[in-house]
Amino acid sequence: METNKEGLIEISVIGEIASPVVGPQAYRITPEGKPVILPGVGGITYNVKIGDNAIQWEADHVEPCVSIKNKDREENGALNLLSCIGNTAKVITGDAKGSTGIVTGKHGGIEHILVDFEDEVLEKCIIGDKILIRATGVGLVLKEYPHIKIMNTSPGLLQALRIKPNKEVLHIPVTHAIPAAIMGSGLGSQHCYRGDYDIQLFDKRHVEEYHLQTLRFGDIVAIMDADHTYGRIYRTGSVSIGIIVHSNCATAGHGPGVTTLLTSAEGKIVPYTDKNANIGIYLGIGRFRKRPAKNKKRRG
After folding, report:
1. Which of 70-78's residues contact partners 24+ apart within 8 Å by CB, and which partners?
2. Do domains 9-135 and 149-283 have the same CATH topology?
3. This prediction's pTM
4. Which of 207, 237, 262, 274 has a CA positioned 20 to 30 A from the CA of residue 75?
5. What percentage of the chain's residues is helix, strand, coil (to nearest 5)?
6. Residue 286 near residue 119 (C-beta atoms within 8 A)
């Protein structure tokens, strides 16, 4: 597929590892009226990785691995807008200085960028360490597919997605095809170049029918009848492709978050099921990161 990647700029944006935050009201109220206290966004999440189930955790909106934010509002806007999934992130302060990771998601509302690092790097990182992202991808276009719009996607990730072109249609592997009717928080956004919106899991029939209990961080999913060309709307026949970026949630209207990658108002995207449609597999990160082989001692 021919793109305009040669014309894209690469630009530095910066944030720092964000502390978890808790407001004055510690309780969250479930749709059943049950008050719960759970870990949430921010910080360094040591045991939650790309490839893990996004539903099973005793948490609310938990973000895998490392969450970063710029404390200056306008600069954080640039960090969230210009960073793209698949971009390289580099630690530039602290004991982990020089280590690199990969951008894996954008979380709206809290306005965090999520980054995957190796375990050895996480052990050296602390809250406040600065992370520089070599941002590229905004403006990426598929020259032969004008009815398909790309967002939040680095050229490297686009190449890794295992897309199958077929005339004017793109066949894209996904782990799940999800009806737009159950999408919740994040609807009404003016654009989809940052943030995410949530899959509601409060209807057991839909969860079972669409196997939503198996959603993993990093899964590529299709949202059917969802047009993200200029904000998130319901449009029959349209298709949007996104990535699972944060965990399930306890509060009404919320659930696992989806950051948009591609969208077609005219339905020029045809999703097909592939259980391996996960950026962890495509990029070799998270639970799919290859560990260096240990040297074996010779016998004799």
Report:
1. 70/13, 70/14, 70/15, 70/16, 71/16, 75/13, 75/14, 76/15, 76/111, 77/111, 77/194, 78/13
2. no
3. 0.94
4. 262
5. 15, 35, 50
6. no
d(Cα 70, Cα 52) in Å, to the nearest integer?
A: 27
φ, ψ of residue 36 to 5 degrees: the values are: -135, 150
Q: How confident is the prediction along the chain (300 residues), in pLDDT tens digits per residue? A: 899 999 999 999 999 999 998 888 889 999 999 999 999 999 999 999 999 999 999 999 999 999 999 999 999 999 999 999 999 999 999 999 999 999 999 999 999 999 999 999 999 999 999 999 999 999 999 999 999 999 999 999 999 999 999 999 999 999 999 999 999 999 989 899 999 999 999 999 999 999 999 999 999 999 999 999 999 999 999 999 999 999 999 999 999 999 999 999 999 999 999 999 999 999 999 999 987 655 555 443
Give CA–CA dist 208/203, Å, rounded. Answer: 9
How large is the C-alpha radius of gyration of the chain? 19
Q: Which residues pair with 67 in a beta bridge?
A: 114
Domain extents for the chain?
9-135, 149-283
CA distance 118 to 42: 18
Helices (H), the chain: 73-82, 119-122, 155-160, 204-209, 279-283
Q: Which helix (H) or strand (E) holds 29?
A: strand 28-29
- CATH number assigned to the domain with residue range 9-135, chosen from the 4 options 2.40.10.170, 3.40.640.10, 3.50.50.60, 2.40.50.140: 2.40.10.170
